[in-house]
Amino acid sequence: WSERVPVLDIEPEKVGDSSLIISTVDTVRHTATLAAWLEERRPFILSGPPGSGKTMTLMSTMKAMAGQLELASLNFSAGTTPEL
To answer: Among 25, 35, 42, 79, which is 20 to 30 Å from 4 by CA?
Structure first.
């Protein structure tokens, strides 16, 4: 997996950009796994504590697969009921 991690030359002014993703062995591995599941139309659930990168990883993977997928986002909270 370490050979798949791209080498980046990041401009200093872009370091604070919230959309910037620094690739690591883990992010490359997770993206490849998610892409394979999505291509095969396999269902999956991403779980982890808040801030662990679930949404970032999924959105990054789907962005890389642009044209192959259509995204519909649904947000739920403790206040969500069937009547809404």
So the answer is: 42
pLDDT digits (tens, 9 = 90+) for 49-74: 988 888 888 988 988 888 888 877 77
Could you report the per-residue pLDDT of 2-46, keeping only the tens digit for each?
Answer: 787 777 777 777 676 666 777 788 888 988 999 999 999 988 899
Q: What are phi and psi of 65, to 5 degrees?
A: -100, 25
Structural tokens at position 25: 């062995």
Q: Which residue has the tokens 């599941």?
A: 37
Is there a contact between 65 and 38 (Cβ–Cβ < 8 Å)? Answer: yes
**Does residue 34 contact residue 55 with C-beta atoms inside 8 Å?**
no
Distance CA 31, CA 8 (A): 17
pTM: 0.66
